[in-house]
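User: Okay, second chain of the day. Same drill as before: sequence in, structure tokens out.
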Amino acid sequence: MSEVEPKPLRWSPPPGIGYTVARRPDGGMHYIFTDLNETTLKHWREFALDHLLDSDRLTTNLYDLRQIRDLPEEAIQVALEVNSDPSVRNIRLAVVVGSEKVRDALREIDALSAGSGVEMAIFTGVEEAEAWLDRPLTYTV
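Assistant: Same drill. Structure tokens below.
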């Protein structure tokens, strides 16, 4: 049985962006955000939509926002825009937070994105987020 090559990452971070991304072992993405400036939000939006465009199966993404203390309105709007794109139909998204303000903003995004195809859960630790992402698909059906 041959292994399937993971989809290429196509990651080229310009100066001034406040996130990094790596491919997860299951093919999804692991984002770590340190800043939500305008350059970061623009780059993330384009990068995320590009990588979801040809998604044909469940995608598991982990967003580490523990270094972010507040989600600016612009970040909320960009997240809602990405969540409303048809390409997000099969996403399991775990978000790790370090502040209650960020948790509350994510709950708002989740509520406003209902029916988008994104299954999101919020955590305070990476280990519990990884365990949730690794659940078999039948748990979410």
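The mean pLDDT is 84.

User: Thanks, on to the next one.
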